[in-house]
Amino acid sequence: MSVDRPRPLVAGNWKMNGLMRSSAKVLGEVHAGYTPGLRARVDLVVCPPATLVSAFAHMSVGTRVGIGGQDCHAKESGAFTGDVSAEMLADAGAAYVLVGHSERRQYHKEKDADVCAKAVAAHRAGLTAIVCVGETREEREAGKTLAVVRKQLRGSIPVDSNSHNLVVAYEPVWAIGTGLTPTAADVAEVHAAIREELKRLVGKADHAKVRILYGGSVKPSNAAELMAVENVNGALVGGASLVAADFLAIAGAYLS
Ligand SMILES: O=C[C@H](O)COP(=O)(O)O
Fold first, then answer.
1. Does residue 46 line the site of ligand 1, with CB under 6 A?
2. Cα separation of 198 and 193, whole Å?
3. What are the DSSP calls for 116-157, one per residue?
4. Is the CB of residue 238 below 6 angstroms from any atom belonging to ligand 1?
5. Taking the CB of residue 160, how many other CB atoms lie within 10 A of it?
6. Distance (Å, rounded) from C-alpha 243 to C-alpha 214?
7. How does it assemble (predicted)?
8. Residue-wise pLDDT tens digits, 152-181
9. Is 122:128 a contact under the CB 8 Å cutoff?
10. 93 burial via Cβ count (<10 Å: 0-12, 13-18, 19+)
11. Which residues contact 243 (CB under 8 A, 6 or more apart)?
12. What is the rounded CA–CA span in Å between residue 172 and residue 38?
């Protein structure tokens, strides 16, 4: 591994899944399976629903498994019923937060400027923002993938970003939860474009160290191939992260 190559990160996005009793068991299995060998090679993060962030953070003390939120409000506090601020996530023990996931962009109509404001809030609270980008099937078929991803990056990444407070996740919308994945060559093309764009957005000195995750139907069976792609520095895992053995097997792609 070259000196500049970022340490890999595998993050599990549990989405709106998980009740306390059954989830604590899964998290315990993740802790148990995060062996010294795996810890030496890859960072692990679990992003449970907001109701479980505090408990998971407490349970994870001393395990080196990081905990993240799945979204945050741009403001620190106020009359925003149902929302959670980045400061609240940090207070609950989170170190990361996903922003701009396609499900937020689609179902909550979040635009790049909203995502950027949330990433700013994450940084203000001392969290690492995992900024998600990705094209729809229509955009890919129209040959617009790179243009769409570049535009999302320019609009969503705050100016104060660096390799410590920013992770980028490339998730083609059509690959999420479908069992479909782009070819390794397609992933390589998009990740190279993201790295190039980061040079402008984060700065030449630090851009090579920003982790770029691939997300969308990552499974134990395809993890090794996807994680081996140039400029892929880990994975954002949805469905497979709900099963500890599968999540750990994906991270295990970095053992070989
Ligand atoms: O945040 C995770 C992604 O949406 C991927 O979900 P998936 O692994 O179930 O396709």
1. no
2. 9
3. HHHHHHHHHTTPEEEEEE---HHHHHTT-HHHHHHHHHHHHS
4. yes
5. 12
6. 19
7. Homodimer.
8. 999 999 999 999 999 999 999 999 999 999
9. yes
10. middle
11. 26
12. 27
Tell me the two tokens of residue 164.
């410590």
pLDDT at residue 2 is higher than 50: no
Establish whether this prediction's ipTM goes over 0.85: yes
The DSSP result for 171-192, as a single string, is --GGGTTTS----HHHHHHHHH
The tens digit of pLDDT for each residue in 45-60 reads 999 999 999 999 999 9
Determine how many CB atoms are found less than 10 A away from the CB of residue 252: 21
Take residue 112 and report the two structure tokens written for it. Answer: 């790049």
Find out whether the beta carbon of 181 lies less than 6 Å from any atom of ligand 1.
no
Please state, in angstroms and rounded to a whole number, the distance separating the CA atoms of residues 48 and 223.
21
Nearest alpha carbon to residue 165 among 215, 130, 198, 190: 130
Nearest CA-CA partner of 226 in 161, 181, 171, 180: 181
Which tokens go with 218?
């990552």
Residues comprising the chain, all counted: 256
Return the residue whose CA atom lies nearest to atom 2 of ligand 1. 238
Please state at what angle helix 145-156 crosses helix 184-201, rounded to 10 degrees.
Answer: 30
Q: Global pTM? A: 0.97
The Cα 173–Cα 138 span in angstroms is 10
Active-site annotation, residues: 101, 171
Domains of the chain: 9-255 (3.20.20.70)
Nearest 5°: phi and psi at 65? -85, 120
The secondary structure element, H or E, covering residue 256 is: none
